[in-house]
Amino acid sequence: MQRQPLIIRRGHVATLASYIGVAALIAAIIGLIWQGGVTPYIGAAFGLGLLGIILWAVMTPTEFRAFITGRGVRFSTVTVFSTLILIGIVALTFLLFQRNALTLDLTQAQRFTLSSETEGILQRLYRPIRITGFYTSDYLPTREVDDQFFRLYETESEGLITRLYIDPDEQPALASRYGVTEDGQVFISYLNEDGSVDFNTLARVPRASNQERDITQAILRLLISGSIRVYFETGNGERDPLDSTQEGVSGINAGMQESGLVTLPLDLGEIAAANGDIPRDAGAVLFVRPLTDLTDPEISVIDRYLARGGALFIMTDVLYNENPFLKQAGRFNNYLWTFYGIRALDAAVVESPDTSGETPLDIIAAYVYTATSLAERLDPSENPLLFSVARALQVNLETAPADMANGQITLSSEVSYGETDLRTLGDTNTYTYDASVDLPPQLTTVVWAWDQTTGAKILMVGDSNFVSNGSVLAASGNGVLFTDGIAWLTGMDEQIRFGVQGYNAGVPLIFIDTGTLDLISFITLIMLPGIVLVAGLAIGARRMRR
Amino acid sequence: MATWIVFRREVGQYFASPFAYLITAAVLVLTGVLFNSDLQGSMTVKPAEPALVPLVMSFTMIFFAPLLTMRLFAEERREGTLELLMTAPVTEGSIVFGKFLGAWFYYTLLMVITFIYQFILLSITQPDVGHAISAYIGIWLYGGATLAVGMLFSAMTENQIVAAFLSMVVLFLMWMGDQAGQIVANIDVARVVRALSLQGHFSTSFASGLIRAEDIVYFAGIITVVLYVTIRVVESNRVR
Amino acid sequence: MIEAKGLTKRYGDRIAVDGISFSAKQGEIVGLLGPNGAGKTTAMRMLTGFMPPTEGSAKIAGHDIIEDSLEARRNVGYLPERVPLYPDMTVRGYVTFWAKLRGVKNSKTAVDAVLARFHLQDRQNQLVRHLSKGLKQRLGLAQALVHNPPVIILDEPTIGIDPQQVIEVRDAVRALGQNHTVLFSTHILSEAEQVCDRVLIINKGKVIAQGKPADLRRQLQPGSTLFVVLHGADKKKARELLAAVPGVTHVEAQGDGWQVKANADVRGELSASIGAAGLTLLEMRPITTSLEDVFLELVKEV
Q1: Which option is the CATH number for A229-496: 1.20.1250, 3.40.50, 1.20.120, 1.10.10?
Q2: Is-contact A300 A335, C-beta < 8 A?
Q3: In chain C, how many domains are there?
């Protein structure tokens, strides 16, 4: 039997390598178009393709050169192949740069750069966060614009924040699980260990004019969620945070939970009886209209709490019982007046019928001090506040204790007065102005105090009805006062607040007279094209001339 | 060197052609009208749009790039000078590059003329200069890509009108790709289409004041690929 | 200067040029002669480097047209059949462009010289589009010569211009032959005869004959042809008489006389036998064969 010597020639290997290389590259390009991104398989195909081509080039340089220069091989085939290879290289480079998100923001307002505040917040992340956007193909350009922001977050958070886009038309079940109501909605949530979305932490990112603020605030809410606890005092006949009737305050309770706060009940009487303390993690304690006044042991529990920087949100009403909460001469009122310079008065605010709501006892805050961060959104024309049967409060502005900042937030009008005959008011619901005993205008209805040494904060509102389920929506200022109050008391506002990058910050408007405008029109519409046209005509004329 | 000589001739050719002046004047009238109306509309209401002129040009280039480039090879072919060029001791690469750079240079001059709008804005208000610079860098690359496409079609046919028409159609499609989402239901396909479109790499990035490396790669890539194909098409004259 | 070996160009199944081999020395003017579609232009295009040959090779001034294409092209001046012009350039700009593109160091001097040579100086600032046809032809020549190439290839340079200009161009080509190797194609034989040192006759892509115009003529028509007019004999008798002369191969009536073909000089014998037959010889003159005849002959044979 004759033995056939197996001869492997360089040429054969090179040809084989070239075929494999080109096939792999084509497969990679098709995969790339199909998948719209680099998967490991596509990367491998690209690698194989390049390897094949390089092998071919190294083993038979002359043939390779002939191929590249296009001689001796069928021209069109070569052109198609080499063009595909070139496109592949360009596409790969493109995806590489896209992945790395190398950008240069040239806008004056640095609109496409994360502020240092946002960067600081991203530093604090410890758990993977997922930004999920729902866009149909109609919303593709919006998605691309949004994506520029989202990928900034992804890059800056070193991958802790990831993006996911879902077409709600294709996955309607998933969209309804997220609660998608319209195109282009974006959600943010923590991811579980297994990479699935933690639906307990899911929140929708509002779509306003400032995307960075919206996204960063949403991230912040995630970050602080669970870390701030707010206690409702429940042992003294307060409005019930679980009561969903008109009288209850379940609305604000749910609202705080949605914002990432943890709300818990607290019985001050029990604590005082056990000689205990308000829990250390309490971000704020809410008194939503206790009925009876606090006892001495209870006051000392509160004193200890405030001494370590606690925060109280006191909502007090005009009460007609024997031992009403925060009665003017009571121990607790006295304590507050002595140490914090604020107190409640035993008087109901009566407004002039002209300025009030339905009855003179419906108090629309006539004056608001919006200078504090607490009240800056409370402009009466935009967010009016509505109290019903408000209690007059007082601030000691002259002799406030040392290191104590305090002040008023809302005042009644000049034609209001403080009705001190509460018994008559309570029994017959009638009131008359008696200059000798009633209080003159203007009357304070919301006050605050802040001990700068201990950090203790107190916000006192002379009404509790404003947060009841029945009336929290009656005036937009009611919800604002409550949420901003909670934010101030718990320190949440300081965490969320950061430099707002206005859309057109620093770019002034145009003010010019019509003469200048006409001159500009003349220059741009007549002179400039005119000069060019004349030059063209001159050239044309020269062409005509022999 | 040969590239430089071809480039010089092409630039000279533009300046010797009344048609090129006509195109420039048309572009200036168009941008001028929109600039003035924007100025009037935004007075005391909003700041001037810094990317206005580049945005206008991004659309007009679909029509003007083919008009500026249709001559480049079609005329050489018609006059027979292409044969002479290809027997000169120069490579197709230099010819194609020289011509492309010539067209791009002329376009750059046109673009520079529109800087006058920015100077007007600077004299009456304080526009966002960085934003405008970004938009201009974008439209410069964008213009380069459209000119490359126009030149490719010029190299493929002897008839200038056919060349211009074909490249307008292709450029229009590449421009329309931005709106792919309205037509294509599948968002991933739409995304790929948009990633291939001219607008997709201009309107939401350069024109908003953001320079992204990937967009530069896109335009540079379009120019590279199209010029390469053009070189091959010109070479194909040899073996025809 | 030009060395072609088996140059072949195929377009699919059709062979345009089929294994042409020839060489041309410095200072030689070589004519490519052939009917339209014979493959002259294709052959020239391969030599100028415009298109690569399918098979075979060629060297221009020692540079291979494939391996060393750019260098070969640098040594060629080429004027295609249709003069390629940029209508919107000035005469000077046009020539300068080609000078620079072909790497002429001192382009200003070279352009001045070539414009002077073709009497174009006073038109140097005119636009090319305004030139007459003859001037355009001269401009085309100027373009081909501006870089002073050793090899000049001219594809039918006298086509479509008026007779006066044809003569100018032919003189110009003749003058070129002193310093350059000129490859010159034409389908007009008298032109090739006048201008060329050597002629290649091409038909259907093949060289079917080559040599000096005079040699070609002799080689293909070794005998002589005479025109004879007799008086005093009827046609039949005269034909018999003429045919009987030794050496005469063919007798044919032509007008009022006879065309007599012979394989040697038979003038003496002819007049002697005419005299002997008592007839009067009114006229006898030789008919020179032109290349035209040679050409037709050859083309017919193939």
Answers
A1: 3.40.50
A2: no
A3: 2
Element (H, E) at A89: helix A75-100
Per-residue CA distances from B165 to B63, B69, B78, B170 (Å) = 9, 11, 18, 9
Q: Which residues of A touch C126 (CB under 8 A)?
A: 546
DSSP letter string, A365-424: P-EE-TTSTTTTT--TTTS--EEESPEEEEE--SSPPTTEEEEEEEE--TT-EEE--HHH
pLDDT digits (tens, 9 = 90+) for A17-34: 777 787 787 777 777 766
- CATH number belonging to the domain at A116-224, selected among 3.40.30.10, 2.60.130.10, 3.40.50.150, 3.10.300.10: 3.40.30.10
Do the bridges between strand A386-388 and strand A342-350 make them parallel or antiparallel, or are there none, so unpaired? unpaired
pLDDT of B197? 86
Residues 6+ apart with CB under 8 A from C16: C9, C10, C39, C42, C205
Q: Is residue C132 domain-shared with residue C259, that is, in the same domain?
A: no
Domain range annotation of chain B: 2-239
C254 shares a domain with C177: no
Please identify every stretch of chain B with a pLDDT value under 70, giving residue numbers as ranges. 180-181, 183-185, 239-240
Final residue before a domain boundary, out of C212, C230, C259: C212
Instruction: Tell me the per-residue pLDDT of C252-295, one tens digit each, with 9 for 90 and over.
Output: 887 788 888 777 777 788 888 888 888 888 888 877 666 666 66
Question: Considering the domain boundaries, does residue C299 fall inside one?
Answer: no
In 3-state terms, what secondary structure has residue A114? Answer: coil
Q: Where are the domains of chain A?
A: 10-100, 116-224, 229-496, 512-541
Choose the closest CB to C52 out of A71, A542, A543: A71
Q: How far is CA A153 from the centre of its chain?
A: 14
3-class SS at A216? Answer: helix
**pLDDT at residue A506, as a whole number:** 52
| A542·C66 Cβ contact <8 A | no
For residue C143, the domain's CATH number is 3.40.50.300
Nearest to A367 by CA among A410, A330, A306: A410
Amino acid at C129: R
Give the range of the structural domain holding residue C14, as residue numbers without chain letter: 2-212
The SS3 call for residue B186 is: coil
DSSP code, position B240? -
Average pLDDT over residues A307-325: 89
Q: Residue A181 — φ and ψ, nearest 5°?
A: -110, -25
What is this model's ipTM? Answer: 0.88
Section A438-460 average pLDDT: 89
DSSP, collapsed to helix, strand or coil, labels residue A283 as strand
Please compute the mean of the pLDDT values over residues C115-138 and round it to a whole number: 89
Residue A162's H or E segment, with its range, is strand A161-166
Distance from CA of C24 to the nearest CA of B (A): 20
Judging contacts by C-beta atoms under 8 Å, the chain C residues touching residue A542 are 127
Q: Measured between CB atoms, which of B36, B46, B129 is closest to A509?
A: B46
Digit-coded pLDDT (tens) for C61-83: 889 988 888 899 999 999 998 89
**Distance of alpha carbon A515 from alpha carbon A509, whole angstroms:** 18
**Among B165, B166, B151, B171, residue whose Cα is nearest residue B71:** B151
What percent of chain A clears pLDDT 70, i.e. is strictly above it? 88
**Cross-strand pairs, C230:** C281
Contact C51 B13 (CB under 8 A): no
What pLDDT shows up at residue A505?
47
Among residues C157, C178, C212, the one where a domain terminates is: C212
Residues of C in contact with B7 (CB under 8 A): none
B neighbour chains, 3+ CB pairs within 8 Å: A, C
Looking at residue B23, its amino acid is I
